Amino acid sequence: MSNTQVFIEENKDRFLNELLDLLRIPSVSADSKFKDDVRKAAGFIQDKLLAAGADKAEVMETSGHPIVYGEKMVSDNLPTVLVYGHYDVQPADPYDLWDSPPFEPVIKETELHPQGAIFARGSCDDKGQMYMHIKAFEAMMATDSLACNVKFIIEGEEEVGSDNLGVFLEDNKEMLKADIVLVSDTGIIANDVPSITVGLRGLSYVEVEVTGPNRDLHSGLYGGAVPNPINILAEMIASLKNEDQSINIPGFYDDVVILTEEERAAMAKAPFDLQDFKDSIGLRDVEGEEGFSSMERTSIRPTLDVNGIWGGYTGEGAKTVIASKAYAKISMRLVPNQDPDKITKLFQEHFTSIAPDSVSVKVTPHHGGQPAVTPTDSPAYKAAAQAMKDTFGKDPVPFRGGGSIPIVALFEQILGSKTVLMGFGLDSDAIHSPNEHYGLFNYYKGIETIPLFYKYFAEMNG
User: Fold this and answer.
1) Do 93 and 310 meet the contact criterion of CB atoms below 8 Å apart?
2) Does pLDDT of 462 surpass 80?
3) What is the C-alpha separation between 269 and 284, in angstroms, rounded?
4) Which of 319, 329, 350, 445 suits 56 as a labelling partner, its CA being 20 to 30 A distant?
């Protein structure tokens, strides 16, 4: 066992308790009432970077929530790793579906986490995974084994679209210059099947508003004679999908990259049990675009999903009204070559065109992001693969994920830096959902693996 591994083993309890303290800070970037907590979390990260051995760590202002920047420059002759993560978290709503309060972390055993898992908002996405890097950095500093220069950029707006990150990157290109970006905001296939994410889908996110009468109306006096925005919105949304579950927006598929049969066959080698997949989320059956497997539907095919829909009266009891307005939030996951701005425009044009004359429609674009595919033949990928092989005891599987991390394209576009997506979470960790959790096995495995990445990356760039 190396000195670094010994240090990690001796400090495991402290590493855990520090993460629990971070998880107690409700750093919800989407809700202004948590603004002070978001800043408190930024200060926490700054303090821990300095305590771990960073030459400097600063809370840097943006027009939104701050970005924490830290660095340790060992030598100009060594490669530089830029670590990206985020300290902001999703809203915890609905609170009543949590088994324990979302910002009061508890550790419980589960079937997939027999060693225990931390239940708290942000435990996996991304505080637990981001904090692994700070603790791995501390372990390397404490044992004089840091093999690369390291820079940290930890932001507070990832969950609301990273609107200010691009400006920050443009304004600080020289400061952020690095040979590779290392991100742990993804996952592995299973705790006994390590994997490295090599592809991510892009995102177009919109909000729609349908307006009918100029006020809410009595459903008895007016029902049957006036447009009902909720009914109409439901019909419009239903028309966005065809019977084969393909997306019914003209031009939507024009730029989609079609994988070859050989590429699809290679993807199919990744372990996947359909029954386990259904059981894990309580489904009797799956659905999706015809002609593609569940794995393909969540990785190489674009999607359209309603994320929220509301209007009229939703309180206790009955209120017989025809609502003046109805709303929905809709996300579209995109695959390589699909441009989020183009897709957003296609959606706006189509959704407006299918509205009946009796209502007006407003489409408001929110955040989006480019899809990304990362190389598997680079020194950085090979270093990550060797590091995971050392700690898991088997080669990791290259895997395309279904989520979106828009910053991957940003880092390449602005900084010219490729990214390695070396995450340790599981799909079953309920990120963005009530009872989000992160396994202790995964947390410690990440801290153990990250120093090996630095070691092998330095050797491959020597």
Assistant:
1) no
2) no
3) 24
4) 445
| Tokens (6 digits) for 264 | 């699809």
The CATH architecture one would assign to domain 3-200+371-460 is: 3-Layer(aba) Sandwich (3.40)
Q: CA 109: distance to chain centroid?
A: 24
Q: Hey, is 315 helix, strand or coil?
A: coil
CA nearest to 408, candidates 428, 398, 422: 422
Look at residues 234, 162, 209, 207 and name the one whose alpha carbon lies nearest to residue 414: 162
Sketch the domain layout of the chain as residue ranges: 3-200+371-460, 202-256+302-369
Average pLDDT over residues 8-32: 98
Residues 229-244 pLDDT 10s: 999 999 999 999 999 9
Query: Element (H or E) spanning 184, and its range?
Result: none
Each residue's pLDDT tens digit, 91-109: 999 999 999 999 999 999 9
End-to-end distance of the chain based on CA atoms, in angstroms?
A: 24
Identify the DSSP state of 415.
I
Per-residue pLDDT tens over the stretch 27-76: 999 999 999 999 999 999 999 999 999 999 999 999 999 999 999 999 99
| Residue 164 and residue 413 in contact, taking contact as beta carbons nearer than 8 Å | no
**Alpha-carbon distance 420 to 460, whole Å?**
15
- Confirm whether 3-200+371-460 and 202-256+302-369 share one CATH topology: no
CA-based nearest residue to 426, from 128, 51, 73, 75? 128
Q: Considering only CA atoms, give the Rg of the chain.
A: 23
Q: What is the pLDDT of residues 394-447, one digit of tens each?
A: 999 988 888 878 888 899 999 999 999 999 999 999 999 999 999 999 999 999
Rounded Cα distance between 429 and 424, Å, is 11
Sheet holding 437-439, edge to edge: 106-108, 117-119, 437-439
